[in-house]
Amino acid sequence: MRIGIVYDLFDDYPWEVGEPPDADAENEPPETVDVLAAAIRRLGHKPVRIGTAYDLLIELPDLRIDCGISIAEGARGRNREAYAPMLFEMGGIPYLGSDPLTLSLSLDKAWTKDLVAAAGVPTPPYRTYAGPEAIDPHDLPGPFPLFVKPRYEGSSKGITAASKVYSLEALRAQVAHLTAAYRQEVIVEPFIEGSEFTVAVIGNNPPEALPVLQRAVEATTGIGLHALEHRGMAPAADLEPAPYVPLTTELEHCLQQLAVRAYEKLQCRDFARLDFRVDRQGNPWFLEINPLPTFAPDGTFAILAELMQQSYVDFLAEIVQRGLRRLGLA
């Protein structure tokens, strides 16, 4: 089969005046596309590099592919991750990954939390604000410290040490900064002091939760190191990781169960990554889900392949094969 790949490279981001420095943080290096293409070839198929969703739009009338896969983030707006899958649907082309509704909904952190909470997955209470004037000091989501982040972004965009606020004055200042810089609402929730974990889920009917990975948190703020060191942000000085906490078999099983429950509630398909915090009493809290995770050779899925003693190309080929099986194309 000919399998089309849609993707956004860092060089593809359409910069505009006044955008924040991490605006392209969700895009990919060429190596991500290379390893995904290698996985497709490993299965005996031909990868067809299409480019961005805008390239797909132009080429769609004459495009000759049997299946598609999109790792493209798009640009601006909460429906941007759904651009390519929607075009695939309009063109009658089967595709791997979640559908446009799931991709758009899961990019909205507030709506996602509402749904997973309805499924019985614990998640911190929250408020959304369009600006500092919307903050009601008598109706905050919880006690300080609170955590402030853009409502419709991923890859830790907008997160710095200042995202963790300890006072009403600091909350108003951070809300004002982020709503202006990212041109969207922010979501504010209590900061969960403790450890951080990520869970990858793959497949369908039933989906499978892979081994849980613990993420380093910064010793002083307790914020995940990956968030403070993400692309586009100035390197923070003297970042030291806090000691890791033991990941017991019971905790791992609990996180995997919650991850699968959220994955199924949001009707994800083929692959996703979910992030959790575990408080100092051992209680897990869902933070967010990414059904369009990076397949970068230094990302979570590559680490899991090494942990499971597989080559990364073979590991990705198995994920692709499961998706093709769902489509009846394996």
TrEMBL record:
SUPFAM superfamilies: Glutathione synthetase ATP-binding domain-like (SSF56059), PreATP-grasp domain (SSF52440). The keyword Nucleotide-binding applies. It comes from the Bacteria. It holds the Pfam family Dala_Dala_lig_C. Transmembrane segments: none annotated. Keywords: ATP-binding, Cell wall biogenesis/degradation, Ligase, Nucleotide-binding. GO terms for biological process: cell wall organization. GO terms for molecular function: ATP binding; D-alanine-D-alanine ligase activity; metal ion binding. Residues 113-321 form the ATP-grasp domain. InterPro entries: ATP-grasp, ATP_grasp_subdomain_1, Dala_Dala_lig_C, PreATP-grasp_dom_sf. PANTHER family: D-ALANINE--D-ALANINE LIGASE, D-ALANINE--D-ALANINE LIGASE B. Belongs to the D-alanine--D-alanine ligase family. This is D-alanine-D-alanine ligase. It comes from Rhodothermus profundi.
